Amino acid sequence: LLMPESNRESRVRNQYQNYKTIKAARGIKIAAKNLEKSMAGLPLFVGRKEDEVDYFKNEIQNILKNALNSIKLQETGVYVQASTLGSLEALLEFLETSNIPYAGINIGTVHRKDIVRASAQLDRKPQWAVVLAFDVRIERDAQDYADSVGVKIFQADIMYHLFDMFLVHRE
């Protein structure tokens, strides 16, 4: 975990200090292998021995499981996809206050399997056969499949833009 010296800009080439732990939101650089397996919004642990790695895997799985289990899905509703756990929680809270039900959730890139899950609404209430993709990429085959089965995908990096697109679709 590398962080620039205090009161220094991280984009400017300068000396970085090495840290064992960092708490709170800070601008840092992480130098490590397999970072693509990490998930934004969750703790990042370093395990040097095999038993440490197994322990940290279980820790992360429990943290994610607890967070996702606290989310109450509806029988019918939109499918929500976000880039991080925090942004997913924020979007779900916004949808709740706007009385928009959600029947499925996921974190990360929109894949074909997400469209398959969203397409379950086509048999129940077709107006909910929608994926709200917040700050995420959409794989080409996912978009193609959505187009072929009639699932709408709305993608935006700003929550309110996503909401506005959905409202236009609903009316």
TrEMBL record:
UniProt superkingdom: Eukaryota
InterPro entries, per the entry: TIF_IF2, TIF_IF2_dom3, TIF_IF2_dom3_sf
Sequence ranges assigned to domain Translation initiation factor IF- in this UniProt record: 61-165
Gene source species: Adineta steineri
Gene3D superfamilies: Translation factors, Translation initiation factor IF- 2, domain 3
Gene Ontology CC terms, in alphabetical order: mitochondrion
Keywords from the named record: GTP-binding, Nucleotide-binding
Pfam families xrefs: IF-2
Entry GO MF terms: GTP binding; translation initiation factor activity
Keyword GTP-binding: yes
PANTHER family: EUKARYOTIC TRANSLATION INITIATION FACTOR 5B, TRANSLATION INITIATION FACTOR IF-2-RELATED
The protein, known as: Translation initiation factor IF- 2 domain-containing protein
